[in-house]
Amino acid sequence: MQALYAQLLVGLINGSFYALLSLGLAVIFGMLNIINFAHGALYMMGAFVAYFLLNNDYLSIGYWPALIIAPIVVGIFGMILERTMLQWLTGLDHLYGLLLTFGLALIIQGVFQNYFGSSGLPYAIPDQLKGGMNLGFMFLPIYRGWVVVFSLVVCLATWFLIEKTQLGAYLRAATENPTLVRAFGINVPRMITLTYGLGVGLAALAGVLSAPINQVRPLMGADLIIVVFAVVVIGGMGSIMGSIITGFALGVIEGLTKYFYPEASNTVVFVLMVLVLLVKPTGLTGRAA
Amino acid sequence: MKTRSIASFLLGTALSLTAVGAACAQDKAVKIGALSDQSGLYADLGGPGSTLAAQMAVEDSGLAAKGWKIDIISGDHQNKPDIGTAIARQWFDVDKVDVIVDVPNSGVALAVNNVIKEKNGVYINSGAATSDLTNAQCSPNTVHWTYDTYMLAHTTGQALVKAGGDTWFFLTADYAFGAALERDTTAVVQANGGKVVGGVKHPLNTPDFSSFLLQAQSSKAKIIGLANAGGDTTNTIKQAAEFGITKGGQKLAALLLFLTDIKAIGLETAQGLNFTETFYWDMNDQTRAFSKRFAAKMKNGAPPTMVQAGVYAGLRHYFKALEALGGNPHDGVKVVEKMKSMPTEDDLFGKGEIQPNGRTIHNAYLFEVKKPSESKAPWDFYKLVGTVPGDQAFTPLSESKCALLKK
């Protein structure tokens, strides 16, 4: 029984990454109607920015500032992508956005791989979060606890921003009817660019969070992104709360699978996806298209 | 006088004509296929570095100056046996490849082994670990260089059991390699009076090991044996440190570790780990000289791993055999037989031999990872703690189930 608690907690930790990433995807899909396959590559870039901030010849910027700087840097990179490429796809079939962002992901990963190889770079856990505590049923590394709490806060804040504030209301309105919102004097294209920047920033933030746990390596996002897409599909494309809850829930389910039948742990998410699509094609919390 | 010189001229022409005739059956052209994981979790320990090692072997052999024409092509098997065999078939059928080198990932390596046997090519495997390549599934076309699971089990594994680690829990990569390494190590553990108390099979390329590590922790085994490789091993070791596993008294047995893995883990976390390799760049003047030339050509300045060194050494020996044959007969079995008949000697692995089952025998070295304070240079990671002679490290012929030995 104790082992089970431990597995639940570990699942929750992995779930936080799924939640942060799928949240970003859901925001981008909900507002821009783009299936952002470059999300994994941008997550990887977040981790690399944190690594560069710490390991360069000029100044050594640690984990805490990186938590803010990396999402901003990668967010700006994302906004440049949106301005120069993605915005031309408005109104076209989803397939075009998917292909473009997938291509971008391959290029970004290829460039990083060319320079840094595939085995990754070490990034230490910040001193304040080193060590762990004994919870009785398991030894919880403090850093992992921090990841769960922090990502939960970020997820809820994003949900609040989009669902409960004036700005979020504009955004949602702009998705429904951009022409009408423009008529009210709101700069819709700029708002869309900023939204893409926000979604990308969330990916980069997840990247920084994961840097001390996983290695910082070019393919870290490629391995994760497919699972995250499954999470988004299960949760319902474009649903903010749905993707947060599904992210955490699937982390837990995966954790339990690792305990009961480890060989299936990397397929269980997809099995669930198939089941959900069969029963409720719009996802658990999704609205009909 | 005159008639004699005419006679000798005729004789000379006749002799040179027969020489030309022989050279037609075996020409001086060689095509090498470097088949590896070029972009995945094993790309840094083999991959582009292995292709570079092959190029350096060609250059250092000096065969081009003697009129040989040697080409290298490379391919990415993406750790998928079906892709690996498809590339190998195309290489033999269309590109007329003579020899395939490297091929990490035991699953792919075993699949390709069959294709090479069928096409009568030459297989110099350096990247794969499974001892089955020269045991149950041995082939007259195959030479297995560098290392295998039997060797890893009988060096690192044995040393740990003898040091008191008599209960084991395995974290095993769920494919041919992990299964072979777990099987060979289990045999060693049991033969030395130890016990295996449990294990988990995890999928290849798993980012998060915390769940598996918790199971290993609650098993209370003294040794957690890592029957995995590359990115999987580095992730396991990092996360084991995070979960306080080593501090809790359990010891990690990294059965297979490469230089690039230590770089990825960082000395801070990796220090003190014991493991076995057959090549390290900082062994002696020859290895240092080779590694310096190698690193200068690598994008990230990395010295060669043992897999890449094995590609180099294996090809050098292959070229020696071709030279001894006086040309390339394009007959895999014949070339491999020649390779087996000659003792091996090169700058990187020293003296050795190739057994009738295809297994190359050379020294294996027990290393310990240095403390950060002991490391003086960017890739200065290992401390030599022991040398195991080749005949003790690798499968004795009496234990080998290879069908080639029954002739």
TrEMBL record, chain A:
Its main location: membrane. It is a multi-pass membrane protein. It is found in: Cell membrane. It holds the Pfam family BPD_transp_2. The chain crosses the membrane at residues 6-27, 34-54, 60-81, 93-112, 143-162, 192-213, 225-253, 260-279. CDD domains: TM_PBP1_LivH_like. Keywords: Amino-acid transport, Cell membrane, Membrane, Transmembrane, Transmembrane helix, Transport. Belongs to the binding-protein-dependent transport system permease family. LivHM subfamily. This is Branched-chain amino acid ABC transporter permease.
From TrEMBL, chain B:
Keywords: Amino-acid transport, Signal, Transport. It comes from the Bacteria. InterPro entries: BCAA_transport (IPR051010), Leu-bd (IPR028081), Peripla_BP_I (IPR028082). Residues 30-370 form the Leucine-binding protein domain. Residues 1-25 form the signal peptide. Pfam families: Peripla_BP_6 (PF13458). Gene3D superfamilies: 3.40.50.2300. Belongs to the leucine-binding protein family. This is ABC transporter substrate-binding protein. The lineage of its organism: Bacteria, Pseudomonadati, Pseudomonadota, Alphaproteobacteria, Hyphomicrobiales.
